[in-house]
Design brief:
The chain has 526 residues and is an alpha+beta fold. It folds into 3 domains: 7-84 and 168-245 and 336-400, FAD/NAD(P)-binding domain (3-Layer(bba) Sandwich), CATH 3.50.50.60; 92-163 and 422-507, no CATH class; 252-333, TATA-Binding Protein (2-Layer Sandwich), CATH 3.30.310. The protein is 36% helix and 19% strand. It has 17 helices and 23 strands. The protein has helices spanning 14-28, 63-71, 75-81, 122-125, 134-138, 141-146, 171-185, 231-236, 303-316, 321-326, 363-377, 386-413, 421-426, 434-443, 462-471, 484-507, 511-520, and strands spanning 7-11, 30-31, 34-35, 42-47, 85-87, 89-93, 105-109, 166-168, 189-192, 195-200, 206-211, 215-218, 221-224, 241-243, 252-259, 271-276, 279-285, 289-296, 330-333, 337-339, 343-344, 347-349, 355-356. It has a 7-stranded mixed sheet. A 6-stranded mixed sheet has the order 9-4-1-13-22-21. Strands 10-11-12 form a 3-stranded antiparallel sheet, with no helix packed on it. Helix 1 packs parallel to helix 7 and helix 1 packs parallel to helix 11. The two termini are 44 Å apart. It holds the Pfam family Trp_halogenase.
Length: 526
């Protein structure tokens, strides 16, 4: 009889480590919010006391709502403690062309196109592409985000919404909230110590860790959340790293935290991603400050040039020269790529220990959630069958990475920016994956659809490709024939969306106004 898996050791804290601990405990040790008297899993998280949270992963997907709910975190507490605000998608500014004007922007909203379960509206929008943007035709979030409106009202229950949403948040405070919740309510053991040695058994599995202060810590399954060090999966188990710099060039970032000089400053309800000569700038609005950072290619720009671009952006977007001169950017180095597997032997890597490309579209936290949730739901019952589950997870992991790379590259490939070599180099066919080249050729004749995605539960649905393609002005041949009945349905759905947008624009509060009400009253519980 095989010994059941009961001893789980997580190495590394931060968002990746604590989300993983929380989802494992919630799935296996908690029933209706109550910790079992005899938990199935003994979960230990080892965290170095000297490693600080990177603190720039401040944008989440809507999936974070279900993650927080599953772990048992109150949404009001989360928003108040993590300086969170509401995110309804990403707005791309100046990506389409070199022109700097209001028309050179588009939204990739979190809401799927209106009526998507009844009909794919994209082919029916194409003949009207000169009159109305795709996002505005099929989603209310294009207009509502321009107005700075929130995705819900204070009377909406926790985690419920009028429009789909994720969050912007303070990553350091989020990790601290998760730590407290997991240790105080979910029974996770927290060890602050340095891992000095990793010991294998005869079969090549990790048997135990030797720590500086706590000695040996044994386990049956080890989870690597050590960030870019990839201490267990990469360094110890030597799983190859697949660098993607030849496809996606960004390998550097400068990040700033910019306080509001006016406390009543409007809070954007989407991430602003603004194209620059050699990269792009993220701009994330929290209640008391913005998180702003320039992601760029060191092959196309040096650090001093990048810092000047970042400072120019900050002062051009409402920050005084006096305040801007006091802000010091933090340099982050990016090695774009991922390990060939996330699961080797009895070790699975989650988060940056498995891989990281760049923060465009905030896929990093979403991939943490997917991997942690998958592990919690498919936890091997014993070591004998672990490799079977690991192979299944590794296959989906590889598919996710291929899609992430294609989707991020798409943003650059279809840009018409010409002034800078950075953007021209992104369109060089040698840097474009063959699968993406084939899809782009297909999309000249038919719009992206679910048939373009060959596996279930893809991170980016067909609608995401539609939003980006047509937001960037991509041209698809008009459909040669449409059924009259479908045309009537499409017109009804377009009209419904327009009416819904008008109604919500009158009833929804601003992002800041809703956050003030959350601070005072809170959303009602379910």
């Amino acid at each position: 009889m095989q010994k059941p898996i009961t001893q789980i050791v997580i190495v590394g804290g931060g968002t990746a480590g604590w989300i993983t601990a929380g989802l494992l405990a919630a799935e296996h040790n908690v029933d209706k919010g109550v910790l079992a008297i005899s938990p199935k899993l003994n979960i230990t998280l080892i965290e170095s006391p000297d490693v600080a949270t990177i603190g720039v992963g401040e944008g989440t997907w809507p999936s974070m709502r279900s993650t927080l709910s599953k772990i048992g975190i109150d949404e009001n507490d989360f928003i108040r403690r993590c300086d969170a605000s509401f995110k309804q998608g990403s707005r791309f500014i100046n990506w389409r062309t070199d022109a700097v004007d209001k028309s050179n922007s588009y939204l990739h909203p979190f809401s799927l196109p209106h009526g998507h379960q009844e009909l794919d509206l994209c082919p029916f929008w194409l003949p009207h592409s000169e009159k109305v943007s795709f996002a505005q035709a099929v989603s209310s979030q294009e207009v509502l985000s321009q107005l700075g409106l929130a995705p819900k009202t204070i009377s909406s229950a926790q985690y419920h919404f009028q429009n789909n949403y994720g969050y912007h948040l303070n990553a350091g405070k989020f990790s601290q909230l998760l730590l407290e919740h997991c240790t105080q309510k979910l029974g996770v053991t927290h060890v602050r110590d340095h891992v000095e040695h990793i010991v294998n058994n005869e079969q090549g599995d990790i048997e135990k860790l030797i720590t500086q202060q706590h000695g040996e810590i044994s386990g049956q399954l080890f989870i690597d959340c050590t960030g870019v060090k990839s201490l267990l999966l990469g360094k110890h188990l030597q799983v190859p790293f697949l660098c993607q710099k030849s496809v996606l060039f960004n390998d550097s970032a400068l990040a700033m935290q910019v306080p509001y000089e006016d406390p009543a400053t409007a809070i954007a309800s989407c991430t602003h991603s603004t194209a620059q000569p050699n990269g792009w700038i993220w701009d994330i609005g929290l209640p008391t400050r913005k998180g702003v950072g320039y992601v760029y290619s060191s092959s196309h720009s040096n650090d001093s040039q990048a810092e000047q671009v970042l400072r120019d952006y900050v002062t051009a977007n409402g920050t005084s020269n006096q305040l801007a001169s006091q802000l010091e950017p933090r340099k982050l180095n990016i090695n774009p790529g991922y390990h060939a597997k996330c699961w080797q032997n009895n070790c699975i890597a989650i988060g940056m220990a498995a891989g990281f490309i760049e923060p465009l579209e905030a896929s990093a936290l979403a991939l943490i959630e997917w991997t942690a949730s998958t592990l919690a739901q498919q936890l091997p019952p014993n070591r004998q069958v672990m490799d079977t589950i690991a192979d299944r997870v590794n296959l989906r992991y590889q598919q996710h990475w291929q899609q992430i790379i294609d989707f991020l590259k798409l943003h650059y490939v279809i840009s018409q920016r010409e002034a800078d070599a950075y953007w021209r180099d992104h369109r060089d066919s040698s840097s474009i994956p063959e699968r993406l080249q084939a899809q782009l050729e297909l999309w000249r004749y038919q719009a992206p659809s679910q048939h373009d995605i060959s596996y279930k539960e893809a991170l980016f649905p067909a609608a995401s490709f539609q939003y980006v393609l047509y937001g960037m002005g991509f041209q698809t041949q008009l459909p040669s024939h449409v059924k009259p009945s479908q045309l009537q349905l499409a017109q009804r759905l377009f009209n419904d969306n327009q009416q819904r947008t008008q109604a919500l624009s009158k009833s929804l509060p601003t992002n800041r106004a809703l956050l003030a009400k959350v601070a005072q009253y809170g959303f009602p519980k379910l």
